[in-house]
Specification:
Mean pLDDT: 97
Radius of gyration: 24 Å
Shape: globular
Structural class: alpha+beta
Number of helices: 7
Helix content: 10-25%
């Protein structure tokens, strides 16, 4: 496995030992006519015209293809060898993400289809595999210009421009085969209780077998549970012998070992609680100021896909180095290994959806978000690092049509039904419809004017809002969920918000003035600075696109790490 790219197990919170990484060289072909199936490309033995390195998208350098024009259809093929022993139970083919509509064939037979370019999916392919050599074919369709397809920050023009960047088509996360017994654990969900010192677990079980669950902390057993002949949806509570709270900067994680008959799964959870209390955001009962940074998850060589697991972890460490304690994972569903590193490092994040590309002025736009959004919540529910959900970012009126408010309302209510344990922002910035938090975006570059905007929140209970004609602040908890964006381009080819500073001193003074205005506001629970790194032509990061610091990180750490007015 040493030569396989991204060889690490892709799902750290639900690990089985019996698996096969399918990353590496696949046959590949662009199918802009979307005629491949009619031409029989799915059939065993039909050759494709090129090669690609999976899991990197064909637009990326790391893929070996680097085709950046529009691709409306792409095909992948590879062979895989399995044994009789591996087929005695159940074989499952997993995809971390395929953008956008995927159709998967095994030995020429349809294994399944999936719509949604950002979430993980799987197919039971036991009946389609045979001992020996097997052929897997994947067909993916995508159209960034389709108003019903969410595409985040992918450009709908040939070139990147403004805050839109190189597209991602097809497979962009790990592909793997996993083998389980016929009786297996399908899924688990954790409900920690910091007061009682317990964790309630809902396990979805297929088949009937004895169940044993053991929790531990740093190798020491913390509590266990057993049940004979368990089956179906099985809910139980474990009393933990010691409390170790997961907290900001302190990623205390309990390990969990599941044994269900012959199926063995290792997992983890964090013992923590988040809740709103007036204008305060409390984590484990303590008012915490969220020092967030906008992280868009783009890489120069991999586009949507980090070149290595270390690169995912490094982005969090870069953020921590300049004083942020978390991030808005912006216009993209990040892969599970990023969330694992956030869990482990005590780094708070907001789960978001790449809603840009959808035209939210149409009622049917809800079909472009709700199915995949519910899959995201289901996949990522257990990550303690996620402290809130934000399905939309900056929903706008389009060509004289107002945004369809009911779509935002439906998605907000679905979010709260699926996860009542976290707050939900309906749309970051504008236009709010139904929300737990009323946040705003403000790229005012003059620190004095910026401060005046939000001092009124303390003196008059009034929130400055560029879009007050369309939304009404009713006293909700709030923060400035985008600010700054100060331009600093190494070669003066990029852009940022407002007029860029002329000197390093002017940049640093501006950053401090804008940030101090929010830290000193006793009614503001957080901030989110735009952004962590440059992304292509948008050059307003604290680091370059290649992850090099533009200024001394210690300066930013000093500005951000002092106590905020709202903190306990």
């Amino acid at each position: 496995m040493s030569n396989i790219p991204r060889k690490e197990y892709p799902r750290p919170q639900f690990v089985r030992e019996n698996w096969m990484n399918l990353n590496g060289t696949w046959a590949f072909e662009i199918d802009n006519g979307r005629s491949g199936e009619a031409r029989g490309l799915q059939k065993v033995g039909t050759a494709l015209s090129g090669e690609i390195t999976v899991p990197f998208c064909p637009e990326s350098e790391l893929s070996g293809v680097q085709h950046t024009d529009f691709m409306y259809g792409v095909w992948y093929k590879r062979t895989v060898t399995v044994t009789e022993k591996q087929l005695k139970g159940r074989a499952v083919l997993h995809f971390g993400a395929v953008d956008y509509c995927a159709k998967v064939f095994v030995n020429g037979e349809l294994a399944g289809t999936h719509k949604g370019g950002y979430v993980s999916f799987e197919f039971d392919v036991t009946a389609l595999l045979k001992a020996g050599e097997n052929e897997i074919a994947v067909y993916a369709e995508d159209n960034t210009r389709d108003r019903l397809i969410p595409s985040g920050k992918q450009s709908e023009q040939y070139n990147s421009y403004g805050c839109f960047y190189t597209r991602t088509t097809g497979i962009w996360q790990t592909v793997w085969l996993e083998f389980t017994p016929k009786a297996y654990i399908s899924r688990v969900q954790y409900y920690p209780n910091i007061t009682a010192g317990t964790v309630t677990v809902t396990a979805e079980l297929v088949g009937t077998a004895n169940l044993t669950v053991t929790t531990s902390f740093e190798g020491k057993e913390m509590g266990s549970y057993t049940a004979e002949n368990a089956c179906g949806t099985h809910t139980f509570t474990i009393k933990l012998s010691e409390k170790h709270l997961w907290d900001v900067g302190c990623g205390n994680l309990y390990d969990v070992a599941f044994a269900f008959g012959e199926d063995n799964v290792t997992s983890y959870f964090g013992l923590r609680e988040v809740r709103l209390d007036g204008h305060k955001f409390r984590i484990n009962g303590r008012s915490v100021f969220q020092r967030l940074v906008l992280d868009q998850g783009f890489y120069p060589d991999g586009i949507y896909t980090a070149p290595s697991d270390k690169a995912l972890e490094n982005d969090i460490k870069l953020s921590l180095a300049v004083g942020f304690n978390g991030a808005r994972l912006h216009e993209k569903i990040f892969e599970e290994r990023f969330l694992y590193h956030a869990d482990r490092l005590g780094y708070i994040v907001w789960g978001e959806f790449p809603n840009w590309g959808l035209d939210s002025s149409y009622a049917d736009s809800v079909y472009g978000i709700l199915p995949e959004w519910t899959e995201e919540i289901r996949r990522d529910f257990n990550h303690p690092a996620i402290v809130g959900w934000c399905p939309y970012n900056e929903t706008w009126d389009t060509d004289g049509r107002k945004q369809f408010d009911d779509a935002l309302d439906i998605v907000y209510r679905a979010t709260k039904a699926l996860d009542p344990t976290r707050p939900c922002i309906d749309t970051s910035g504008n236009y709010h419809v139904a929300t737990d938090i009323f946040c705003v975006h403000d790229y005012e570059q003059n620190p004095e004017i910026f401060k005046e905007h939000y001092d009124k929140l303390m003196t008059e209970g009034a929130l400055f809002d560029n879009h007050a004609h369309r939304q009404t602040y009713k006293g909700e908890a709030t923060f400035v969920s985008e600010y700054g964006g100060i331009q600093w381009s190494q070669d003066e080819s990029g852009w940022g918000y407002g007029t860029g500073p002329k000197t390093e001193e002017e940049f640093l003074t501006r950053f401090k003035g804008l940030t101090d205005a929010l830290l000193d506001n006793s009614e503001m629970f957080g901030l989110c600075y735009t952004q962590l790194t440059d992304v292509e032509q948008e050059q307003n990061g604290l680091y370059t696109y290649q992850r090099k610091p533009k200024f001394d990180p210690a300066f930013f750490h000093g500005v951000l790490s002092r106590k905020a007015a709202i903190e306990d």
